[in-house]
Amino acid sequence: xxxxxxxxxxxxxxxxxxxxxxxxxxxxxxxxxxxxxxxxxxxxxxxxxxxxxxxxxxxxxxxxxxxxxxxxxxxxxxxxxxxxxxxxxxxxxxxxxxxxxxxxxxxxxxxxxxxxxxxxxxxxxxxxxxxxxxxxxxxxxxxxxxxxxxxxxxxxxxxxxxxxxxxxxxxxxxxxxxxxxxxxxxxxxxxxxxxxxxxxxxxxxxxxxxxxxxxxxxxxxxxxxxxxxxxxxxxxxxxxxxxxxxxxxxxxxxxxxxxxxxxxxxxxxxxxxxxxxxxxxxxxxxxxxxxxxxxxxxxxxxxxxxxxxxxxxxxxxxxxxxxxxxxxxxxxxxxxxxxxxxxxxxxxxxxxxxxxxxxxxxxxxxxxxxxxxxxxxxxxxxxxxxxxxxxxxxxxxxxxxxxxxxxxxxxxxxxxxxxxxxxxxxxxxxxxxxxxxxxxxxxxxxxx
Length: 448
Ligand SMILES: [Zn+2]
Known about the structure:
Layout: H1 2-14, H2 18-28, H3 33-54, H4 56-65, H5 86-91, E1 107-111, E2 119-123, H6 125-141, E3 150-154, H7 169-174, E4 178-182, H8 188-201, E5 205-208, H9 210-223, E6 232-235, H10 242-252, E7 256-258, E8 260-262, E9 267-271, E10 278-280, E11 285-291, E12 294-295, E13 301-308, E14 319-327, E15 340-345, E16 351-353, E17 359-361, H11 364-371, E18 377-386, E19 389-396, H12 402-416, E20 420-425, E21 439-441
Parallel strand pairs: 3-4, 3-5, 5-6, 6-7, 18-21, 19-20
Antiparallel strand pairs: 1-2, 8-9, 9-10, 10-15, 11-12, 11-13, 13-14, 14-15, 16-17, 18-19
Helix pairs in contact: 2-6, 3-4, 9-10
This protein binds zinc ion.
């Protein structure tokens, strides 16, 4: 198949192993849970040893705690290592980098994060390969194959619609497999246009962000439009609420597969086709659920703490993702050995509304931070007070530059129109029950 030849050629050029790892993952999902746990503990011992020998931060930490790599043999020893927070990563950034890697071994990445705290990190090519491979497996559960046509309703900026830097994009483009639709400009006119584009393009899969997709679904429902040929909708990047899933499944007349990813730690949680249970990628990460510093029992909710088993450039061990999860005690009836996550509370975003009636999903802001590389912001929150006014709370770091702030304001004005932007620097963002909502609308959204 020509397409696969091109993908292989791409992999050779970029020194990645995505398809090989994907094939491994398709096998290992059926391993017994015990075998998967054994595999995790083997990988854990390797990354611990590596971190002690090559990562100054961990070497010093182990010395300080009087630990040797041999003291961490498995899951039960993990709590000997303290939890790693985003602030600690930002403060110890250089010390977390593999001192024996060369510059060309690193690829820089960033995540908008789940709690309004953007984070930059470095990865190696192994991690990229695993990351894309676990994504492909979660997509495969939704019956997606890399050569399938898909519509991508995502955070595309109008000035750069075609290149989002996603890894196989050049090959997808060559074979006309991808339709990109920006979710930043939601009006009846754009949605009508998107509907027509989807009908003409005739994709098999739709990949979208829950809030904007729900908005689109309401539009389709109101108009009585039907999209017949899409066989699965994949949602990602925000929390999908049950009423949203219900309407999306009705309007698109197909199942929704909700996935969750924490890219910085190679964690992917996808839904199996048999039971729509959420399985986590045990081959690439170890998940702990922790409350007040202690592991909780299964079926109990707690903070999500993840150890990345794939990144030798900048390993994160026991990293606090910032989301809340619950692990099921039982395995899934589908037969996969991968453990099941029962509930997952991630980000929820409000919309912002502009004076000329456009809806901007809250995910716009983390996308701006990541895409336009605005640095020096530790945490932020956006509040729409009135139609003409938004307030932005920022906790800055010492890397913060005023010139970037001006650029940031300009980007917002380009999308939101002539709106008053009040920026307030604060020491911390007020949170409700430990969880930060970071796009908040104080408008009565029902009126719009
Ligand atoms: Zn299952």
